[in-house]
Amino acid sequence: MASITRRLKRLKTRERILRENLLGSSNTWGTPPSDEEYDRALAYRVLMHAEIERHFEDTVLSALLSSHEIFKSKNGTITYPAGSALSHYRSKCFIEGQVTAETTFADHRVLAKYATSKLDEAVKWVESSIVTKNHGIKPQDIRRLMGWIGVDSGEINANLLDALKLLGNERGDAAHLSRREIWRRYKRKVSPVGASKIKRLPSPSDEVAAVDAVLKLLPELDRLIQTRLRSTI
Fold it and tell me: In this structure, are residues 97 and 35 in contact, taking their beta carbons and an 8 Å threshold?
C-alpha cells in the first residue's frame, strides 16, 4: 500500500525538477513570456502530462499487485481492487462501452472460488490490455483506469477531472499543432470544424498553475485507493 503513496511523492519531486530545469525561478518569468519561455513552457506541459499519465497507470497496477499479494498472504482475503478487477474481467462489461465502472460483486463464495483460479490471470490481463494501452488523462481515461480497482466514477473529485481534462486538451495542442497554428487559432479565436480552440498561450506561470491544480487533488484520490486496499469483500 505504501508504494502508491511513494509514487505520489516521486511525481511531485519530478515536477519540481522539471520546473527548475525548464522554467527556472518564477522571478525570471517575463510578461508576456519570451520566445524561449514559450517553448520551455510547452515542453514542461508535454512532459508533465506524460508523468501524470504514468502516475495513474502505475497507481492502478500497484493497487492490483498489492491486492493480489494480500490475497496470497492472508488466506484468500479479497480486497476491493482484486474483487473489482475479477468482476470486470469475468464479465468484460467495462470494455464493451460502459462509461463508468460502477462496481458490483458476485456472491462472495463464488468470487472467492473464481479468485483462486483467475486472479493472477486477471491482474496480468489488466496490465497488458488496460494499463499498457491507456493513452491519456482525460476524465474517460481516468474513470476507466480507476474502475478496475473499485473506484467508481462518482467518487473521483470533479475538480480533479476538470483539471485533468484541461491539461489533457492543452497537451494535445502542444503535441500536434505547430507554433504558427497555435498562434493563429488564439488570435483569430476560431478553429477548424471539430478542432479545439486555443484560449490561452503557453506561459510558465499558467503551465505551473495547470499542473498544480492536478497535483493538489491527487492526495485525496490516493487516500481513497488506500481505503480500498484496506476494505475486504
Answer: no
